[in-house]
Design brief:
The complex is a heterodimer of chains A (325) and B (720).
Chain A: E1 5-7, H1 12-21, E2 25-28, H2 34-39, E3 47-50, E4 59-61, E5 67-70, H3 75-80, H4 82-87, H5 89-96, H6 101-106, H7 109-113, H8 165-171, E6 175-179, E7 185-189, H9 190-193, E8 212-218, E9 225-231, E10 242-251, E11 254-263, E12 270-271, H10 284-292, H11 304-324
Parallel strand pairs in A: 1-3, 2-3
Antiparallel strand pairs in A: 4-5, 5-8, 6-7, 6-8, 9-10, 10-11, 11-12
Chain B: H1 11-15, E1 32-38, E2 44-50, H2 52-55, E3 60-64, E4 93-94, E5 100-106, H3 109-116, E6 120-125, E7 140-141, E8 153-155, H4 158-164, E9 167-175, E10 178-179, E11 187-193, E12 196-201, H5 206-217, E13 224-227, H6 243-255, E14 259-262, H7 265-271, E15 274-275, E16 278-286, E17 292-303, E18 325-334, H8 348-366, H9 370-376, E19 389-390, H10 394-405, E20 418-419, E21 422-434, E22 440-446, E23 452-456, H11 465-477, E24 484-488, H12 504-526, H13 540-543, E25 548-554, H14 562-565, E26 567-581, E27 587-597, H15 604-623, E28 655-659, H16 683-695, H17 706-709
The chains are: A alpha+beta (325), B alpha+beta (720).
Bound molecules: flavin-adenine dinucleotide (FAD) and iron/sulfur cluster.
Residues 26-34, 51, 71, 75, 98-99, 103, 106-108, 110-112, 114-115, 162-165, 212-213, 239 of chain A line the site of flavin-adenine dinucleotide (FAD).
Protein name (chain B): Xanthine dehydrogenase family protein molybdopterin-binding subunit
Organism (chain B): Mesorhizobium neociceri
GO molecular function (chain B): iron ion binding; oxidoreductase activity
Chain lengths: 325, 720
Amino acid sequence: MKAFTYERPASAAEAAAAAVRIPGAKFIAGGTNLLDLMKLQIETPTHLVDVNSIGFDRIEPTDQGGLRIGALVRNTDLAADPRIRRDYGVLSRAIVSGASGQLRNKATTAGNLLQRTRCPYFYDTDMACNKRTPGSGCAAIGGLNANHAILGASEACIATHPSDMAVAMRALDASVETVAPSGASRSIPIADLHCLPGNTPHVETVLEPGELITAVTLPKPRGGLQLYRKVRERASYAFATVSVALIAKIEEGRLTVDRLAFGGLAHKPWRVEQAEHAVAGAVADSIADVVLSGARPTEQNSYKLPLVRRTLAATLEHARAGASR
Amino acid sequence: MIGAGINRIDGPLKVTGRAVYSYERQDAGQPFYGFIRGAAIGKGKIAAIDTAEAESAPGVRLVLTHRNAPKQGAFVNKPTIFDRPHPQLTTDRIEYFGEPVAFVVADTFEQARAAAALVNLTYGREDGAFDLANHADQAEPQATLSIGLPGETRFGDLEAAMSAGPVTIDQTYTTPYHFSQPMEPHACLADWRDDHLTVYLATQTVAQNRIALAETLGLAADQVTVDAAFVGGGFGSKLYLHAEAVLAALAARKLANPVKVALTRRQVFTLTGHRPEMIHRVRLAATLDGQLTGLGHDVNLQAAVAEPWIEQAATVARSLYAAPNRLTRHSITNLDLKAAEAVRGPGELPGLLAFETAMDELAYALDIDPVELRLKNDTAIDPELGVPLNGRRLADCLREGAKRFGWDRRPKTPGSRREGDHLVGYGMAAGIRMHFQGPTGAIVRIEPDGRVIVRSDTPDIGTGTYTIAAQIAAESLGIGVDQVTVQLAHSDFPPSAGAGGSWGASNLSIALDRACQQIRNRIAEAAGLGATPNDILADVGRWFPEGVEATGQTIGQADDPNFKNYSQNTYGAAFAEVAVDIATGEVRLRRMTGVFAAGRIVNAKTARSQLMGGMIWGVSSALHEAAHVDPRYGNWVNGDLAEYLMPVHADIPAIETVLLDDYDEHANHLGIKGVGELGVCGTGAAVSNAVFNATGIRVRDFPITLSKLLSGLPPMRTAA
Ligand SMILES: Cc1cc2nc3c(=O)[nH]c(=O)nc-3n(C[C@H](O)[C@H](O)[C@H](O)COP(=O)(O)OP(=O)(O)OC[C@H]3O[C@@H](n4cnc5c(N)ncnc54)[C@H](O)[C@@H]3O)c2cc1C
Ligand code: SF4
C-alpha cells in the first residue's frame, strides 16, 4: 500500500471538489473493494475522499412513483427495505445472493456498482493486464479464463463485471445520479454507466474525474414476477458463473418476458432488449439465441453457452410455476 | 477423565484474544517489520536488481537480496525433512514463481510492503515446465517415499489378473494442487540478543525447526530458542521451515533489533507448500460375485528437483482390501514449481479419492451394492505385510454407517431419483489411515505446593493438545483437570515428533502417562506405601521439599515391536447424499454420515471436531478445491481465498460424526491412535460417488465442478 492522505467532507459538493483538487484522489465508501486493491497496489490513490458523511444514506420516494436510493445506502439495508422487497424483488434477491453478510453490511450502493473485475490476472501485479496497466497485454487471453466474458469482450480484455446488484438494476432500468466537481448534476441511465472494454479496458464507466454518484433512482414498480438466479460453484460467497435477472408477466394466459438481464457474461450487466417482448411465449431457446448471438467464448468458458440456455429455461420454468401458484 | 468431551482449557484465552500468537508476541520489545518480495517469473535468473529506491523509502532499515544476504548453511535433503536447512537469497537463480528475491525491513508493515514494491528487478526468463499433463511422459519411478515406505509393492501378477477378469476397471483420475491455508498465516518474530536467537514461530515442529534454523544460520542448536505457544492451524504446512523465519532471523541479527514477518494470504500460496497434482491409474479385477483378484494403483505426482516430496498416495490400497495380485507404484515428474509438501491427509486424501471412486465403478460394473463389495474384500491380515491389522473395524464402520444413513433407501439406478429441480444421489466410500508413532518426550513436575506442571515441545495447533495433555495427566495422577498446568511448544521442553501426521496426541499421551506413572511410584516409595496415596498432591511438599519431577518417553515406531507385529491403521466409512441441479449442474451436499474407529478417544469433543473438519475437507476435495497453475508462467492463478474455493457454511448441512470408541491394545498401552486426518480419508470419494449415483455421470478429474457435468445432464425443456 502506498502512503495516502485522507479527508472526510460533509457534503457531496465538497467531496466532488476534493476529488479533483488533489491529483490521484479517489472516493472511498464501504472500502470492501478499494482497500483490497490498495493493499495489492492495484489501486494507488494519493488521497482518499471518504464519502461516508455526505448524507445520501436513505431510500426516498420520487415524484414519478419510484424510489431514490442514496449512494451510501448499505447493501444489507437496501435488500431488506420493505418497499424494495415488495416492488423490486429482483433487486433484493440479487443483492442477498452476493458476497457475505459482513461485506453487505459495509458495501454501499455506489461502491457496488463501481466494484472492479475479479479477473485473477488483474489481481496479480506480476501479470500483464491492460486494465491495470494499459498497453501491457492481457494474460487472461490464452491463460486460465473459465469464468471470463463470452459477450462484448475485446482483444484487449475479456473480463466480466462481478456485481449482482447491477444486473438487477439493469433489468429495472435504474438511473445513476451524479454531481460533478463543477457542481453540475446529471442522470445516467444504467445501461450507459458501464463501458465495454474495447481498446481501453481501464475505462470502466462514463464517469468523469471527480464525478460522484449521489443516488440511484428506480422507475415506478413494474410488477410481474421478479426472479434472480445465480449459478455458482458453491452455495454462498462466490461470484456468479452466470446469473439471470428476470421480470416476467402473464399476458393472455401466457408467460412473457418483460425484462431480462444477465451477469457473468460481459464487462457490464448484459441486457438484450430484443430478447424481451419480441419473443412471444417466452421460449427459452429462441430468447437465448438472441442473447447469445455474437457470443465469442474461449475454449475454457464455452460451457457458459449451454449454461445460459439451461439456466434461462429453468428460471422461466420457475416463473411459470410461480404464476400458476 | 480420558474420553470426556470437555471444553478446551485454552478456549477462554482464545475467544478473549489473550492467546498470543507468534506475530503478536510483545516479549522482544518494539520490532521492525519485514516484507518479502517474490520473483515475477517461474524460472530463470535475476538479470539486474536495484534497491536504491527501496532503501531510501520512508522507514526502511534494510534491504536484503542475494547480493548482500549473509552466508548460510546449504540445503541438505535430510530424510527427517522438517529439520532441513533452508537458506534464502543465496543466488540469482529463480526456481519457482514467487521465490523470495528481496527482503525489506522497515519501521512499519506498510512501509516495508510499499518499499518492497520499489525494488527494481530485471529478469532473464527461461522456459520452464509447469504442467504435469504435458510432462507426464518424463515420470521417474521412485523406490522410496518421503515417509520411508517402499515406492513400489508387487504381489502376484496384476497384468494376468486384469486379462483374466472377468470384470475389470482401468481408469485414470486426476487430483489437483491443494493448499492447507491455515487461518493464521505463516509468521515469525525473531529476537537476536547476546549471541542467542529466539524465534516466536508459527510451527508444528519445534525441535526440528530449531535444528533447521540453527543449521541455516550456522549456529549451535542451543543458540536457538523456538517458542510456538499458540499456532492458528497448520494442516502440514507448518511442519517445514519456510522463508519468513529465516529472513526474520537474518535481519534481526544484522539489525540487532527484533524483526517480525507474516506472509500475506497470497504469499501463503507461493511461499509455503502445496499438495502435488497427481495422475492416478487405478486397476481392479474381480470375480462376478465381487471378490477382488487384483488391484493396482499407479500415481505420478509433481515434484521439484530441489526438494522432492513423494507423497504416499498409492499406498492407500495396500492395507485396505485383500486381493492376490497387487501392484502399487509411485513416480514423480519434476516441474519448475515450488517443492510440494504434506497437506492434510497426505497420501490418503488424493489416493482414496481416486481408489474409492474406482471401487464404486467396480460395484456399478458388477451390479453389487458398494457396501457389500467392500465387506466382501475385507481382511483381518494385512495383505502386503502379512501381519494382523489391529483394531480393524472397517466392517463395523461400514455397517453402522449404512444403518445410520439409511443406505437401504439409496437409488439403485444412477440418475433415477429426481426431486423438484434436483437429481439426488447417495454415495459411500471406505477410509483407512496409517497410524504412526514418533519419538516424543514429556516432563511432569509437581511443585511442593501441589501445583502440577506438564511440559512438552509438542505444539497445540488448534486441535486441543493443551486440553488432552491435562486430561491424560489428570487421569494418570488421579487429580482434576483444573489442577494441571500445561506448557507446550517451547524448545526448552522435552522434544517431540511435533504436531502433524495425526500423531501428536498419541505420542504425547504415551510419554506423559509414563512420566506420571513414574511420579506416582516415587511418591508411593517416599511415602513408604505399597501404592500411591489417594490424594497424591496433599503431602508432596513433605516428601519432596524441592518438588518432584519425571520424564516419560514415547519411542519411534521403528523401535516398537507393535509396529512390526501389527499393521497399524485407523478406519472409517463415509456416506453422502448430494443434490445436483438438473439445469445447471451445481452440486450441493445434503447430508453426510461418517463412522470412524480410531482406538480410544481422549476427548470426544475435540476428536469430533477434527473428524468433522476432515469430512468437510473431503467434501471440498470432491467439489471445490483446486489451485491452478498457469502453464505459461508457473504462477498460482487463483491465489486468494475468494478464488481458491472451499466450502462455506451454506455448503455444509448437518454432518453426523460417529466414533466407535475402542481401546486398541496393540497400538500402545493407552490404546490410543491418531484421529486428526482420518476424517479426510474416503469422504471425498463418498461425495464423488454420490454425484455419479445422482446423475449417472462419472467425473474423474477432480474437483467435480458444474462445467464437467453440464453436457451429461438430461436435456431441458427449452422450447415452447
Ligand atoms: C470476498 C468477496 C466476495 C464478494 N462477492 C460478491 C458477489 O458475489 N457479488 C457481488 O455483487 N459483489 C461481491 N463482492 C463485492 C462487493 O459487493 C463490493 O466490494 C462492494 O459492493 C463495494 O462497495 P463499497 O461501498 O465497499 O465500495 P468501495 O470499496 O468503497 O469502493 C469501490 C469503488 O467505488 C468508488 N466509489 C465508492 N463510492 C462512490 C461514489 N459515491 N461515487 C463515485 N465513486 C464511488 C470507489 O472510489 C471505488 O473505486 C464481494 C467482495 C468480496 C471481498
Ligand atoms: S481480462 Fe482484462 S482484467 Fe483480465 S488480464 Fe485481461 S485485461 Fe486484465
